[in-house]
Every structure is written in structure tokens, then in C-alpha cells.
Design brief:
Length: 107
């Protein structure tokens, strides 16, 4: 395993590749990522979803885990959905263009 130290900047860059399929915007710019804790090859991403009943919750978890796991030096990735503070549209970056990325194709 590569012993390269993990950097917050790289984690955030990879999380920007995780697109909310309902809004077509990455989860960082949507304000869904609340905290990133890391050290000794372990990464914990605390995030939320737009609504408590969001049907994309599991999908986003899988995408977050895959994105972070692809970083050299990552030994363990975990995620935690948090509900405080409650997400609102005010958390979206001002310059966001919705559906900058098309939603994934359904099989």
C-alpha cells in the first residue's frame, strides 16, 4: 500500500466528482459535505442529503466511499449521515449551475 499522506484538498477534489443525480451538481458545491476527518489512512466524511427521505441517500454514500477510496494512501473510508444543521438551499454555492452534469442514465 502507498504510504502517501492524504490531503484534505485531494479529498475535496474527489468529492466534487460525486454528483447528486437529482440536481446535477456535486455534493461539495451543494453544501452537503459537513465535515471531513482523516488521519493514518482513515477518512470519515460527514454529509447530509437534501431531504430525510432522499431516495439517493445510499447511492451518494456509495459514490462518496468509492471517490475517497480511490485516493492513494486511503486504508479505510467511512461515511456518516448527519441531520444537524438541517440542509437548506442557502448552503448551495452562489455560482452553481444546476444540471451542469447530466443525471446518470437508468438501465
Amino acid at each position: 500500500m502507498d504510504s502517501t499522506p492524504i490531503e484534505r484538498r485531494e479529498i475535496v477534489r474527489r468529492l466534487r466528482d460525486v454528483i447528486d443525480p437529482e440536481l446535477g451538481v456535486n455534493i461539495v458545491d451543494l453544501g452537503l459535505v459537513y465535515n471531513i476527518l482523516f488521519g493514518d489512512g482513515k477518512v470519515l466524511v460527514e454529509y447530509t442529503v437534501t431531504t430525510p427521505g432522499c431516495p439517493m441517500r445510499r447511492y451518494l454514500q456509495q459514490q462518496i466511499e468509492a471517490a475517497v477510496d480511490s485516493i492513494d494512501g486511503t486504508a479505510e473510508v467511512s461515511t456518516k449521515v448527519v441531520w444537524e444543521p438541517e440542509w437548506s438551499v442557502d448552503m448551495i454555492k452562489e455560482e452553481v449551475t444546476f444540471f451542469a452534469h447530466p443525471p446518470p442514465m437508468q438501465d
